[in-house]
């Protein structure tokens, strides 16, 4: 009885005390959120009692918590956040959403990647589809930009060879807008500059083609221009509007409208209220005649074409429409079935009917990507790749028309020492390229630089280093001639020069 033996459990900092007596039929557990004091009262020389307890995090008492197998509990905000907090990673299991939640997606992506690679030739690449092959491969798989595999280097070299060959034939066999668009997309996703590819400006070539390009092809071209972060022609707004409002009975119109939505999604990547296009050359802002509501209407219109089996027509149309809806962030929308659409595409990939075009269109989807994601390619860690090999040989071997530029070193605020070199160089060359050529020609132009964020920082030329103690630094000046030079903070590898350009690197006092 409680007169002879009992246990008191007191919860610290409260008035609550629980008493347990022998012979009780029901034992209610004591739940405490602070320390407890257990006191045994009894008479006699041999007395014992058994205490069972379970220690848990206070979070475990909350309904909105997640319990790991080790016993620790997490707030729900740490579940499915991309970081494994439980030792066994249980908090990140079953977190897939959208495309990645569809059964068989990962296996299908790997199978499609292997199928695509099996069609690649070390000699001919993917033949006339090399630009498409590399886009599908890179959109469909996560790349390590800090180190390229031998396979990737070979694929990219094949792309360069084929692109140059097509450009050299351009005068006798002109490249059409759709071909230029595919080359631009491929160069962008491999972190190469389509504005200055071995002296050729593919972006300008594409813009020059727009007037003679059929309306049906223009959305693809506008998407490529947007991916290249190039301002669109003034007619772009009306062109895209005409495609979306067309009452043509062509069955392939849906494909073109899907490409139009992708182009608009690219333009809308900043989620602005309206679509704007800024021409950096004139600093003029053109308000494209699409509001968010009109854009959303175009997106919703695509969804209406989905069949009960998940398709939007043939497999190619299904893939391009699915890409368009992904580009518009419609993965989790309730008014269409992403699961059915992707499952339909996976079924095609596992059939004997799979071909290059369908693999090209489907593979990016299995990685949750679309052609409009090319614009988001992160090349910040790829600078060393762009300067692999001998940059001097690369510049000297550039094809296309040549021009002359002048490069000067000014040392001292009053130009105490001046060094000047005149160089004949390919068109569309950068300041960085000219500095490398000058360095190779004359050791006094030797310079040292470091990549900082997305800019090249030149800190030493001719053995003279930036000196914060004296307040003197190397500054870049550009102009058409010596009299017109002005200070420029642009990265030397981003400045494309014109014929007769004057480059001055001036070691002088800098002012903030």
From TrEMBL:
GO molecular function: cobalamin binding
List of residues binding cyanocob(III)alamin: 255, 314, 457-458
InterPro entries assigned: Cbl-bd_prot, Cobalamin_Transport, LDL_receptor-like_sf, LDLR_class-A_CS, LDrepeatLR_classA_rpt, Terpenoid_cyclase/PrenylTrfase
Disulfide feature: 68-86, 80-95, 226-266
Keyword Secreted part of the UniProt annotation: yes
Compartments (UniProt record): Secreted
Keyword Disulfide bond: yes
Keywords from the UniProt entry: Cobalt, Disulfide bond, Secreted, Signal
Pfam families cross-referenced by the UniProt entry: Cobalamin_bind, Ldl_recept_a
GO cellular component, one term: extracellular space
Biological process, per Gene Ontology: cobalamin transport
Identification of the protein by name: Uncharacterized protein CG3556
Species: Trichonephila clavata
């Amino acid at each position: 009885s409680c007169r002879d033996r009992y246990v008191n459990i007191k919860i610290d900092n409260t008035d609550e005390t629980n008493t347990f007596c022998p012979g009780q039929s029901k034992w209610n557990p004591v739940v405490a959120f602070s320390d407890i004091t257990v006191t045994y009262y009894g008479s006699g020389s041999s007395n014992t009692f058994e205490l069972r307890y379970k220690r848990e995090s206070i979070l475990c008492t909350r309904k909105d918590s997640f319990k790991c197998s080790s016993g620790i509990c997490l707030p729900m905000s740490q579940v499915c956040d991309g970081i494994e907090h439980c030792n066994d990673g249980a908090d990140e299991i079953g977190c897939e959403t959208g495309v990645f939640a569809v059964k068989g997606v990962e296996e299908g992506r790997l199978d499609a990647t292997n199928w695509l690679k099996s069609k690649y030739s070390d000699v001919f690449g993917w033949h006339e589809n090399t630009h498409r092959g590399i886009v599908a491969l890179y959109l469909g798989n996560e790349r390590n930009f800090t180190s390229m595999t031998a396979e990737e280097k070979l694929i990219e070299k094949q792309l360069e060879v084929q692109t140059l060959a097509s450009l050299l034939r351009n005068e006798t066999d002109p490249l059409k807008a759709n071909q230029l668009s595919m080359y631009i997309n491929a160069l962008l996703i491999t972190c190469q500059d389509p504005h200055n590819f071995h002296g050729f400006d593919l972006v300008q070539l594409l813009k020059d083609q727009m007037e003679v390009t059929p309306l049906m092809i223009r959305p693809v071209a506008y998407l490529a221009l947007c991916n290249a972060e190039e301002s669109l022609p003034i007619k772009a707004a009306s062109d895209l509007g005409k495609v979306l409002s067309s009452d043509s009975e062509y069955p392939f119109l849906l494909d073109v409208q899907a490409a139009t939505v992708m182009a608009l999604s690219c333009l809308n990547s900043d989620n602005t209220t309206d679509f704007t296009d800024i021409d950096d050359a004139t600093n003029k802002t053109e308000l494209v005649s699409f509001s968010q509501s009109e854009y959303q209407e175009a997106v919703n219109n695509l969804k209406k074409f989905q069949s009960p089996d998940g398709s939007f027509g043939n497999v190619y149309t299904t893939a391009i429409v699915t890409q368009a809806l992904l580009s518009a962030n419609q993965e989790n929308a309730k008014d269409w079935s992403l699961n059915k659409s992707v499952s339909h595409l996976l079924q095609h990939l596992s059939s004997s009917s799979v071909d290059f075009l369908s693999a090209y269109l489907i593979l990016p989807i299995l990685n949750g990507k679309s052609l409009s994601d090319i614009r988001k390619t992160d090349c910040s860690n790829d600078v060393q790749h762009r300067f692999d090999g001998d940059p001097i040989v690369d510049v000297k071997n550039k094809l296309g028309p040549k021009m002359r530029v002048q490069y000067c070193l000014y040392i001292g605020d009053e130009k105490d020492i001046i060094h000047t070199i005149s160089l004949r160089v390919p068109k569309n060359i950068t300041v960085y390229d000219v500095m490398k050529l000058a360095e190779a020609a004359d050791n006094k132009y030797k310079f040292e630089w470091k990549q900082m964020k997305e800019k090249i920082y030149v800190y030493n030329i001719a053995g003279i280093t930036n000196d914060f103690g004296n307040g003197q630094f190397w500054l870049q000046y550009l102009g058409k001639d010596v009299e017109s030079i002005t200070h420029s903070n642009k990265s030397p590898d981003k400045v494309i020069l014109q014929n007769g350009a004057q480059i001055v690197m001036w070691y002088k006092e800098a002012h903030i």
